[in-house]
Amino acid sequence: MLTVPACSPTPEGPPVQSSPTPPRLLPRETFDWSGEAISFSLPPTGWRREGETSGGIKGVRFVKARSVGEGIGVGDYYILADRNRSPYLRDILANFDTYDGGFGWGKALRKTYAYTDTPFTPLESEIAESINRSVSQADAAFRTRDRDAAKAHLQAALAEAERLHFSLAEVIDRVEFKPERRQEPEWYKLTERRETVIAGEPAVIVDYTVTVPERARTYAAREAYVVHNSHLFVCTFIGLQETLAVFDAIIASIEFQK
């Protein structure tokens, strides 16, 4: 999720504490990448906005102009968000009377099947099996023109899907920074891991450094993880130690809509 800047930052040395005075950020904006809204204040003028679609995350990335390649990212871990089939079940039920079989019905129904691979929790496995059983029964009933039964099975599937909830503790291991998960693990050094609160939700923040041997330089890095309504948001920073103040101010500004 983080990339090493192309230019060299400050030389190696003892960590520098972030400035106690928060930087002045630009007005907040609201984003919705995978079905859950999040708002936060934007970096100051001079940070270029880009889309972020790597590492299973849909979000936004800000790159500081005329810097060593410093970047700040905020995104929704869509791999987790997509485990929830409730939106697709609600959609097919809302449009149920418009289906008369054929391609439209099959296309809508395929989206309602739950994933059964690499579940995050045992409860997810249980719920997925129940959803898929009900969806298959709905399809069978629909094809025999028993529309009432088909609709009832879809409603049962939706009730199961709405039981699915994820906590930070259940999902963080899939994305949390660990040196051994990187291509050059010896370049990375974990310096601190702490539990905190972001926008009223339990959160974890991890600090580490990235050393590029051929440049003899060390980059500061920080990642924050928070779950809201079963959506895992990942916030990342890489660059100069003193620029962490901008990242921390953005994290402090995060708000969820409900």
Structural class: alpha+beta
| Outline type | elongated
Show unreliable segments: 1-19
CATH superfamily of the largest domain: Mog1/PsbP, alpha/beta/alpha sandwich
Query: In order across it, which strands form the biggest sheet?
Result: 3-4-5-9-8-7-6
Helix content: 25-40%
The radius of gyration over CA amounts to: 22 Å
Main sheet? 7 strands, antiparallel
Count of extended strands: 10
Count the DSSP helices: 7
H/E series: EEEEEHHHHHHEEEEHE
Report the β-strand fraction as a percent range. 25-35%
CATH architecture label name of the largest domain: 3-Layer(aba) Sandwich
List the domain count as a whole number: 2
Q: What is the CATH first-level class name of the largest domain?
A: Alpha Beta
Measured distance between first and last alpha carbons: 27 Å
Mean pLDDT: 91
Say what the CATH topology of the largest domain is: Protein Transport Mog1p, Chain A
Short recap of the structure:
The chain is α+β, with helices and mostly antiparallel strands. The protein is built from seven helices and ten strands. β8 and β9 form a beta hairpin.
